[in-house]
Hints:
Layout: E1 4-9, H1 13-24, E2 29-35, H2 38-48, E3 52-56, H3 64-73, E4 81-86, H4 92-100, E5 105-107, H5 112-123, H6 131-139, H7 150-153, H8 157-167, H9 172-179, H10 183-197, H11 202-211
Parallel strand pairs: 1-2, 1-3, 3-4, 4-5
Helix pairs in contact: 2-3, 3-4, 6-11, 8-10, 8-11, 9-10
Amino acid sequence: MNDITVLVVDDQELFRAGVGVILDAQPGITVVGEAGNGADAVRLVKELRPDVVLMDLRMPVMDGVEATRQIYAAAPSPPVRVLVLTTFNLDDRAATAIRHGASGFLLKDTTPAQLTDAVRSVHAGNAVLAPNDLTALLTSHFPAPRPVPDAYLALTGKERVVFRAVARGLSNVEIAVEIFAGESTVKTHVGAILRKLALRDRVQIAVFAHEHGLLS
């Protein structure tokens, strides 16, 4: 199995270097580049094709929110996972970055073990923040739900149940218990939902649900 490749983006050189040392010391993870602003991050994502980008929010030239938007607007293939680094819990900018495609956020005072686990988790397509935190962030950013698109209405009844469970932050194991099915069946449903709604991962299912008022 190939190493998870990581691009570290932060305007503080010392912080970037420290994160790089921590991650490079972990088996199965390789830091392939660093950037000091969002513009360089966008360029390096195109050049290096990293699996995961650790993205600071507040930077000169271009901030992490706009960089995240541009990275996902370019639809990189294979898809990159952006993990936001922030000093403040439940940061409004972090919420906006998640709406643009980021897989979650991590506080800068996190431990090396938590950092490593977060990189592995987002690479696997998971969210990196508690379901309650995600709900709090997204609820404040979708005051008026958009119309429900035809793609959602085309989901089967079972797929809609699984969709809402994923949007609530349940794991595949928890969903399996809730719908009295095997974990492999849940994975099949989740894969079908992502494909039919043209979404990248479970975080985007939660964003989609809040955006269209599907959890009320």
